[in-house]
Amino acid sequence: METLFAKTKERMEKCLDSLERDFSTIRAGRANPNVLNNIMVDYYGTPTPVGQMAAVSVPEPRLLVIQPWDASTLKDIEKAINVADIGINPQNDGKVIRLAFPQLTEEHRKNLVKDVAKRGEEAKVAVRNVRRDAIDDLKKMKKDNAITEDDLKDGEKKMQDITDKYIKQVEDMTKKKEDEILSI
After folding, report:
1. For 148-169, how does the pLDDT look when each residue is reduced to its tens digit (9 = 90+)?
2. What angle do CA 61, 84, 174 make, to 5 degrees?
3. What does DSSP say about strands 63-68 and 97-100: parallel, antiparallel, or unpaired?
4. Which runs of E-coded beta strand occur in the chain?
5. Which residues contact 45 (CB under 8 A, 6 or more apart)?
6. Is-contact 163 125, C-beta < 8 A?
7. Which class for 118: exposed (0-12), middle (13-18), buried (19 or more C-beta within 10 A)?
8. pLDDT, tens only, 75-102
9. pTM, two decimal places
């Protein structure tokens, strides 16, 4: 039964990791290299992340500078950023690409907060689905007489406690991201 709890915690942890990766790609008005995480550049026929082709730095709070290690890839990186439609136009000066993050409008911030809340809810649903699967496993163990009725009740309670802990973490992460978006 303990391995079931460990497996459940591991799956719920993956839900949190996924949410964190999701949130890191949402730009909150300040320069964040994570907005480039999902951008792939065709590098000699292989889709390659920007971070593996260039040095990415944040010299100012609203500016991201991408300096490719191979100058011939500058145009490809610029094209990939345009195609990714992250809402920022890259400026190419022949040596580096600059991404200037504009100030977010109030309306855009509110839309971002709604998106963050939606993603937070989706993460909660994912955590609850993991709980449901684990409780189904417990019921199957009871049906197979591997555990007693009391063990089942204790297991369900422990599973709910674990779920509550992870739901709280999702809520905290969501609140933190919403505050980050609204505080600019």
Report:
1. 889 999 999 999 999 999 999 9
2. 55
3. antiparallel
4. 40-43, 46-49, 54-60, 63-68, 90-92, 97-100
5. none
6. no
7. exposed
8. 888 888 888 877 778 888 888 999 888 7
9. 0.71
